[in-house]
Write a structure and sequence with these properties.
about 210 residues, single chain
């Protein structure tokens, strides 16, 4: 049973899709933001913290993610004193969702587990929003933000500046990056729920999970 990786920029719908996969296909959800927050509190010396230097945080986290994905996904080529194969639980599956992935470093770690191509061992879903204007980003920030979101108290002008300087270019950069690593990329700028329905049916076809 393949595990799933959902990657993409903020507000593209990663968490919402992961929640639906949990409810409809029984995938356990692993939030990358929560992993980062845990490292930040437990091991501050590793400098893996939310809302810090994004590139540095991503690079520092990547070796852990590579080994995490390897240990929980494939043990056929592992020579180790740990009997990983004996600890496999059948039908145990998870979806890892987030934005801060460095797949160069992650792939290097995965090679130790006999995993050379991500898309041969994981279902790779990319979510982006390349069809939205800055004003549409502002509208959706104001519509969907909760008190848990760092942009919750921002003014319209601050949100617009963020959309122009960060959200729009980052979404386009992520699209190219995810395609490079074999992700199937979906644009959730419009008709998000219909797109999620399509993705879930695709995953059913890949896994054989019945309705």
């Amino acid at each position: 049973m393949k595990n799933i990786i959902i990657a993409g920029p903020s507000r593209a719908g990663k968490t919402t899709l992961a929640e639906r996969l949990n409810e409809e296909l029984n995938y356990f959800v692993v939030s990358l933001d929560k992993i980062v927050a845990t490292f930040g509190r437990a091991y501050p010396q590793l400098d893996i913290r939310l809302h810090s230097d994004y590139e540095k945080m991503k690079d520092n986290l990547a070796p852990f993610l590579g080994h995490f994905l390897g240990v929980f996904s494939d043990f056929r080529h592992v020579e180790d004193d740990q009997n990983f194969r004996a600890r496999i639980i059948k039908e145990n599956r998870f979806v890892l969702e987030g934005a801060a992935f460095d797949f160069d470093i992650i792939s290097s770690a995965l090679n130790m587990y006999g995993i050379e191509k991500l898309n041969e061992h994981f279902i790779l879903i990319g979510l982006v929003q390349n069809k939205k204007t800055a004003d549409e980003f502002v509208r959706d920030f104001k519509k969907y933000d909760t008190e848990d979101d760092w942009t919750y108290d921002w003014s319209d002008e601050e949100l617009r500046e963020y959309a122009i300087s960060r959200a729009i270019p980052f979404s386009r950069e992520m699209t190219e990056y995810l395609v490079k690593y074999g992700f199937t990329v979906y644009d959730t700028s419009i008709e998000r729920e219909q797109i999620f329905d399509k993705i879930i049916e695709y995953i059913r076809s890949q896994t054989g999970i019945a309705k």
